[in-house]
Design brief:
Blueprint (H helix, E strand, L loop, with lengths): L3 H16 L22 H14 L3 H8 L3 H7 L3 E13 L21 E11 L8 E8 L4 E7 L2 E6 L5 E4 L4 H10 L1 H9 L3 E11 L2 E10 L20 E12 L5 E13 L5 E13 L14 E2 L6 H9 L6
Parallel strand pairs: 6-12
Antiparallel strand pairs: 1-2, 1-11, 2-3, 3-4, 4-5, 5-6, 7-8, 8-9, 9-10, 10-11
């Protein structure tokens, strides 16, 4: 295709020739035709990535596969169900998990302990081109959680076990939540990355789908280029150990279908005291014969609207007042 300035010049010359009565004969150029629209074959692209990884396994390609967004799962897997349980714990070394935290001197940082078991279920019930049918539930033992149901253009949400609230679908926030769930395995693999190498990559089958079983093992050397820090950096000062890590990747799409990961790490807090953490993850993605059941909640209230004085004034006066 010609650059835009060349196309504009050609058209100006043609217009000038017509205005002067000059004939262009058979050599007159036809206006540039629009380039053909080439539709991406996302299924072929996804399969190609998985096959490249199978032929020559490498860390960057594994990260690319695990980093694929949930919209690809919606398109290529169709109706499916994801479920995982993730346990995360951090606390001071030498203090039992059920023992009280030690006291500290005045003006010294306190000891901190963190423990949560997070359970998530995601159901997608639509075939490509059909209206949205999504259920996402996530909660932990501390009575914190969220739930979301999207059916067509209507959405219901629930936070921390409170009442369900209903509203029209007005944003794509549900896609962010779905991507967060899809990337749960990626988050742990990135944590292990600086201290891990690829183990065996074997062909296998899961629920009748050809797949690749990928394992991680402890690396003999550190890989500093793989550090992915959270908003509050700490990983560069930690040492991560791999207890077990096995991931099953769908060979047709490159999406993860199963993962069992156990990691532990150690680092120092602000006072130079050693802390130790651990993570355990067990997750599955299933593609059932029939779409998973998704229904609206039995009882829900409209989302409360914030009062807007100007709109309220117009509504009450029904246009009687001037601007």
């Amino acid at each position: 295709m010609r650059p835009a300035w060349q196309t504009s010049t050609c058209r100006c010359q043609l217009a000038l020739a017509l205005a002067l009565g000059l004939g262009c004969g058979d050599e007159r150029e036809a206006p540039d035709a629009k380039p053909p629209v080439v539709e991406r074959d996302r299924a072929a692209e996804a399969s190609g990535r998985a096959e490249r990884f199978a032929a020559a396994p490498d860390w960057d390609t594994l990260i690319e596969l695990l980093g694929q967004r949930h919209n690809l799962a919606r398109e290529l897997l169709g109706p499916h169900r994801m479920h995982y349980v993730a346990s995360l714990r951090t606390g001071p070394v030498g203090v039992e998990a059920d023992a009280p935290l030690p006291s500290v001197e005045l003006d010294q940082p306190i000891y901190e302990r963190f423990a949560v078991t997070d359970e998530l279920e995601l159901r997608w019930g639509s075939a490509p081109g059909e209206p949205i049918r999504l259920l996402l539930e996530q909660h932990n033992e501390h009575e914190h959680g969220r739930a979301l149901i999207v059916l067509g253009e209507q959405v219901w949400s629930q936070l921390d076990g409170r009442e369900w609230l209903a509203r029209p679908l007005e944003s794509d926030l549900w896609q962010v939540w779905a991507d967060d769930a899809q990337h749960a395995v990626l988050d742990l693999v990135e944590l292990a990355g600086p201290y891990a190498d690829l183990g065996e990559v074997e062909t296998t089958e899961l629920d009748g789908r050809p797949a690749l079983r990928v394992s991680l093992r402890a690396s003999e050397q550190q890989h500093p280029d793989r550090f992915v820090e959270p908003p509050s950096p700490w990983r560069r000062w930690a040492r991560v150990e791999i207890g077990a890590a096995t991931i099953v990747v769908d060979r047709a799409t490159g999406l993860w279908l199963s993962a069992q990961i156990e990691l532990s790490w150690s680092f120092e807090d602000r006072a130079g005291r050693e802390l130790r953490g651990e993570a355990r993850f067990d997750g599955r993605v299933e593609v059932p014969d029939a779409p998973p059941l998704i229904r609206p909640p039995a009882d829900a209230s409209p989302v409360p609207e914030r009062e807007r004085p100007e709109l309220l004034r117009q509504r009450m006066l029904d246009g009687l007042a001037g601007p």
